[in-house]
Write a structure and sequence with these properties.
Structural class: mainly beta
Number of helices: 2
Distance between the termini: 44 Å
Radius of gyration: 18 Å
Oligomer: single chain
Number of strands: 7
Order of helices and strands: HEEEEEEEH
């Protein structure tokens, strides 16, 4: 359902151009027949963002997790869900835009008809080769002892 990527979003002679990537209404139109999981993802080269359209079936859940580095926007496109966080549960319905700040713990549980939502966040940097002592620093910053 995504537009084919024809390479660089710009031309050799000019700057990148805006373009339509997908029509989220087509995912919503599938209703309960929509597959679950990631229905679409932003994959254009040279991008600074990542984005996904995700479908959870009725009662489906993204378990509690913490994103230590990235703020995430979550927009409900269809259906309903509950966002569980340290301050309790918040209902999410079609059209609700939610900010998930980095460092926050959260879980999402789909309502009785499932939920389809869009997430957007800064693109994660690619993996880099690090010196051996970098792993020790990471373990210490996470409070682990390497076990």
């Amino acid at each position: 359902m995504a537009v084919e990527d024809g390479g660089s979003p710009g031309t050799a002679a000019g700057p990148p151009l805006p373009r339509v990537l997908c029509d989220t209404a087509s995912f919503v139109a599938l209703g309960a027949d929509a597959p679950t999981g990631a229905l679409w993802k932003l994959a254009e080269p040279g991008r600074q963002l990542d984005a996904n359209v995700v479908r959870l079936p009725a009662g489906g859940r993204v378990d509690a997790h913490t994103e230590p580095e990235l703020d995430v926007l979550l927009l409900v496109l269809d259906g309903a869900a509950r966002l569980d966080s340290a301050d309790g549960g918040q209902p999410l319905r079609t059209g609700v835009l939610t900010w998930l700040p980095h460092g926050s713990s959260r879980a999402v549980e789909a309502g009785p008809d499932g939920v389809t939502y869009l997430t957007v966040h800064r693109r994660r940097p690619g993996l880099r080769i690090q010196p051996p002592e970098a792993a020790d620093r990471l373990r210490q910053s996470l409070g682990g002892d390497g076990v």
